[in-house]
């Protein structure tokens, strides 16, 4: 719609062509000019709601046989039952540095899942925003985070405990003996009061 609330050309054209929003034409113009998304590309769309750019990106990948993938995430998508984080920093060989980087990645995953305000509450009792909708994990959902064993993992668990009904640690049998990887399994995200 135009600023005046009257359906304009792009709004009507989006409806006609089956796009969920007029913003599809923004990416189409960029794609036509710069050809950024090629057959078989891997594409990550941050801030993907309502999904028009996802539609254009998928169309730009070409036939399924060429491969490629499009993943979108948006903080408006409050609907993930499970969030998985198998992220690990590029290991430097300095255990304290690697553990600190691993904890930082874990905190980022926690922030995406439950929102920064939620874990801010757990860390220091403060909250910038009491809105439950600032993370992508739905109430009752689960989160798995890979961390490197260190002194900090106990603190990390203490941050997660008030947010979830149950937290537990697992070192899978498939983990190499020389690895310091450990997984924090957080179950049943609780509604904040």
Automatic annotation (TrEMBL):
InterPro entries: RNA_methyltr_RlmE (IPR050082), RNA_MeTrfase_FtsJ_dom (IPR002877), rRNA-MeTfrase_E (IPR015507), SAM-dependent_MTases_sf (IPR029063). The keyword S-adenosyl-L-methionine applies. Keywords: Methyltransferase, rRNA processing, S-adenosyl-L-methionine, Transferase. The keyword Secreted does not apply. Transmembrane segments: none annotated. Residues 19-78 form the Ribosomal RNA methyltransferase FtsJ domain. One of its GO terms (molecular function) is rRNA (uridine-2'-O-)-methyltransferase activity. Belongs to the class I-like SAM-binding methyltransferase superfamily. RNA methyltransferase RlmE family. This is rRNA methyltransferase 2, mitochondrial. It comes from Punica granatum (Pomegranate). The lineage of its organism: Eukaryota, Viridiplantae, Streptophyta, Embryophyta, Tracheophyta. The gene is LOC116195769.
